[in-house]
Amino acid sequence: MSEVRVLLVDDHPVVRAGLRAMLTGFDGISIAAEASDGRAALQELARLAALGGMPDVVLMDLQMGEGMDGVTATAEIRKLHPAPPVLILTTYDTDADILAAVEAGASGYMLKDAPPEQLRQAVLQAAAGGTALAPRAAALLMDRISNPGTSLTPREVQLLELLATGLSNRAIAKQVFISEATVKTHLVHIYGKLGVDNRTAAIAAATQRRIIRPPGARG
Amino acid sequence: MSEVRVLLVDDHPVVRAGLRAMLTGFDGISIAAEASDGRAALQELARLAALGGMPDVVLMDLQMGEGMDGVTATAEIRKLHPAPPVLILTTYDTDADILAAVEAGASGYMLKDAPPEQLRQAVLQAAAGGTALAPRAAALLMDRISNPGTSLTPREVQLLELLATGLSNRAIAKQVFISEATVKTHLVHIYGKLGVDNRTAAIAAATQRRIIRPPGARG
DNA sequence: CCCGCCGTCAACCTTTTGGTTGATCCCATA
DNA sequence: TATGGGATCAACCAAAAGGTTGACGGCGGG
Questions:
Q1: Cβ of B172 < 7 Å from strand C?
Q2: Phi/psi at B105 (5° precision)
Q3: Is B170 within 8 Å of chain A by CB?
Q4: Torsion of CA B60, B63, B65, B66, to 10 degrees
Q5: Per-residue pLDDT averaged across A143-172, rounded?
């Protein structure tokens, strides 16, 4: 059987060098190409496809500074190409990241602090059409199917976004043409659903869960 | 002249592999040892010191999961050993991170997305007793000496970070062992400097200006 | 040596939030 | 049609935050 060819996607040269060194050190794995963000990854895939040398697996970081992020890139790949499974390799294992990646169609979710051997297994697994999940990712998905979970309504998310810009209740009320009382009612509901008891904690929680974007987020 | 010997400190095997591959690829740089967190780094230094083979520079990540973080480790190194300069190599370039690192006695502050050549220069620079700063870090420090009055003090930045996690004034006070009155005083100063009049707006402004990381940006 | 900034704290007052109860209207759907 | 959830609002009270004034010790630069 031929080698498993990997497309590396990570914005840090250092990390790409590390993955290249680590993966090429394994039998049966080689690097097909590298990209520094999601858009570059799509271009690489198009280029490789034209050459008839589609990679067997895409190893993708989630957070990528300025460029297209990993979730978007994963969704794009899934939309455009049937072929290469996407294996997420990232630093964080928060619910939001894991769920977003899985929803985007990732075949696996691994953490960068995983030992090399686990990484090798995951790459081979994904290339073979299987899935590879870090323990916490697996646990989360199991938990999610048993607990549907109370989610925020669109209106609540909207208020949360305004909240995060630093507006007072009165200012929010004016902005969306409702009374201050209604704003407070919404906020109480939001706090309850997020499990917090004040507005700053709500912003922190909502940002963490990617319900809203961080104030001043770029891209 | 002999080689510059580097102690790598990063919790990710992949990143260490990348740095090792990259740095050993340069003439005049070699890896003395590696450590996966601050405590391990201190132990490595003690071991190397006993062998009479102190490294010429410590290349340290700031965020290190479970173990001792990079700022603490840097401060410890500065306290215990006169010798090896510490060069920070990290993902974020917010004021908070930069200030904390410089205060802890770091000789430089570089970002992981820096091109290899810049990294090489920085390592050599630091090893030679100089400093190496990423553009944003340099700009920040310049700004602080030219207009001292308008920028936030380290203490204020620290409170701002706690603020962004959703803590109440009382909780912040307990966290940093000061009175609630002092917290309020600091907040008033912060609001003034940021041109806002409440805590959520302060978080939004500080995030936008990259004084602090977005609430819930992990790592 | 003195002045200014930083960090600390207290007392006081006003404004904003948080939390509760209860109510109306609309809309979907069981 | 009945039931429930979402969105809206009011009144009320308690708690927290915002704002002001004043004060004190330390430390560094002029």
A1: no
A2: 105, 25
A3: no
A4: 70
A5: 80
